[in-house]
Each structure stands twice: as C-alpha cells, then as structure tokens.
Amino acid sequence: MNIAIVGTGYVGLVSGTCFSDMGINVTCVDVDQSKIDNLQNGIIPIYEPGLEEMVKKNIKAGRLKFETDLTKVLDDVDVVFSAVGTPPDEDGSADLKYVLAVARTIGQNINKYTVVVTKSTVPVGTAAKVKATIQEELKRRGVDVEFDVASNPEFLKEGAAIKDFMSPDRVVVGVESERARKIMSRLYKPFMLVNDRMIFTDIPSAEMIKYAANAMLATRISFMNDIANLCELVGADVNMVRKGIGSDNRIGKKFLYPGCGYGGSCFPKDVKALIKTAEKAGYPMSVLKAVEEVNERQKEVLFNKLMKHFNGDINGKTIAIWGLAFKPETDDMREAPSLILIDKIIEAGGNLKVFDPIAINECKRRIGDKVVYGTDMYDAALDADALLLVTEWREFRFPNFAILSKVMKGKVIIDGRNIYDRNELTQNDFTYYKIG
Fold this sequence. Notes:
Layout: E1 2-6, H1 10-21, E2 25-29, H2 33-40, H3 51-60, E3 64-67, E4 79-82, H4 97-109, E5 114-118, H5 126-141, E6 147-151, H6 161-166, E7 171-174, H7 178-188, E8 198-201, H8 203-234, H9 238-246, H10 267-280, H11 286-298, H12 301-309, E9 318-322, H13 337-347, E10 351-355, H14 360-367, E11 372-373, H15 377-381, E12 386-389, H16 401-407, E13 412-415, H17 422-427, E14 431-434
Helix pairs in contact: 1-3, 4-5, 8-10, 8-11, 10-11
C-alpha cells in the first residue's frame, strides 16, 4: 500500500516512519525545503528515542521518502493523512488554516479514489469542513472524483511514541463508508496481528475522543495538584493519599502524581480548544475551565516556595534548575513549567543556572543567554543558593547528595516532582520542600 502523510512534525514523522517500518510505502510531505533536505539525509527535527535510527533504516530500504510537493504523489497513493499543525488561535480555538489548505490541494489535484484522513487533533466538525472544501474544489474543476474522509486521531506520548504507535492501546478511526473502513483496516492490520484494538466510530465521535482523552488526563493532573496543595495546608501527605486512592480500581494509579503543572504540545492546547468548542455550541465547560486555572496557578508553586524560604527576597541569589523540557525523554518546551519559573526568578532578581540532558539547545533557542547553562547537573548546582527539580529525568532521580552538599552554596532543594526522600535529604543537612 502507498500512502502520503502531509506534515513532518511530531505526529506526521512518527506516524510515517512507523508505517514504513511495517512495510508500507510512505511519502512524507512538507513545504519546508530545508526540513525535507535534512530528513532525506537522516537528520530529524525533533528528539524522540529510537526515531532517528528508524528513519535512516527505512530511507535506506526505500520505504520512506520525503517530498515538498503533495501534487507529485497524489496519483500514486491510496490514503493521504493530514498531520499539519493546528495551533491555538487568538481566542484559544484550533486554527484550521493548514488543515483546510491541504484539503484544497487535494481537491484541486486528485484524479482517483482517495481516503483523506485527518491525523491532526482537530475540533468536532473539521472532517465535514475538509469534505466540503474538497468537494468545492472538485466542482470548480468540473470533475467527479470519488473520495472519502476519515478521522484517525493520534494517542502518542512524547518519549514513548514509537512504542505507542507500534503497539497501540487502541486505534480510533471515524469513517462514513464501508470502503474507507476496509482500507483503514488493511492499513492497520500489521499492528493488530496479536489483538485487534481498532475502534470504528462515526467521524464526530472520533474527533471528540481525542479531545476528551486529553482533557480527562489533564483533569486528573490538576485534581491531584489541588489535593496536594490542600494536603500541605492541613498536614496530610499527598504521596500517601495518592497511593490510597490509586489502589481503588475505579480510579487507578496513572496520572495521579502531583507536580508543578502540565505542559507540552497537547494538553494545554487541547483543553483550550475543547472549552472553545463548547462555547461555540453554547455550553460552558466549567470543570475544564477550573482544570486550566489550577494548572496555570500550579506552574508558580515552586517559585512561591522559593520566595517563602528566602522571605520574599532572592535578589542576587543563584538558583539552579534541573530539567527544562515539559517531561522526560523529549526536548519539547512548549508550555513547560520551567519557562514560567525562569521568567519569575529573573524578574525577582535571581541568577539562574540550568541543566537538561536534552532540551538545552531548545532552551537556548527560546530564551538565549538569559540563564547560564550547566555542562552537567552538578555544574548547574555549583555555588547555588537553592536547587529546583522541575523535570524528573532518570539521571536526576538518584543524585549524589554528598557531592551536591559540597558544590552548593546553600542547602535548599525544592522538588517539583516529589521524587526524593525527605529523610535522606535531611540526613545530608538539606532543607527539603516538595509538592503537598
């Protein structure tokens, strides 16, 4: 089978590479010539464990190709995935201009039956707009070419995207025809040999499933952060509370970890977009508005603890930050709590030294020389008055506290992910703060 994937961002590149690894002929299309040139040489624009090796392997095998012009491949493919960006518009709704631009190009150029699949995260009703756009272009051309639209939302976790794609929990596909259903079943069959986890729905339901899933996970995070903050005020231990409620199989343990707020490319954007979709439908998403409010407040919790420890004055203090990416195993800093923290510390007169195993270059691209970049975790902590743990990378989980004690000027650790043991730190004479 031959397919095209438009957009070589996170979703498009991971999807295209994994499809090609299963023997499908894939052409990834992007208008950015420099990005395509790099990809053809095995240079990928994102960090994802295992992805670079897989890209190079499938380029060499001839199953994965890259192109800047979608029109050159339309006659040779059975399915076109649209995986272009849907950035938040000024009002928080998803901006569909790139999605509809792809639809226009398809309508202007297809000459045979094609399944057009939306892979990007898009609001309910987008597939209908894609279909109408293609039909409009076909009408302008005066031709009658059969096509189907489908919705196939992605559920990839950054840092584990290849595993998620190759062994998915579920594959959700919204279709309107049996013909499209059969083609999508055939396309995903290599991933379903052990267990068929395909869920076919109508298209609006498929579009809603993605938003509802991310909104639920964001809700669990904000709920636990709210509980953690209350635990701190009333003297309860949120880690014990988490274990107690997580053992209830109706609740489960996942996404019940308190921290310094969620970030990334999905949760913040999708929560905003779902709220806006509801507003347009005349319904107030009160719970999600609270989720968003709690998360924005939570991103300041480490700064507030820092200021409280130093009696409101960190002017001239050197503060170390471990972790810049919004989560481990990625260089993604979109909506990362570290960005809020950095701005507030600088605004308060503090000096910053930071380290992240992967996201250093991304941080430099975003904020330049506002901070000093450590060569490793201990270099970042050198002469620091306080250390803030923001991202729970593996190498941060078991530091040598004896070394930290020697290199740091002050013995203050503020743990934004609750990964350290208070007794161990107090035995090393550290003042320790955590969430909840």
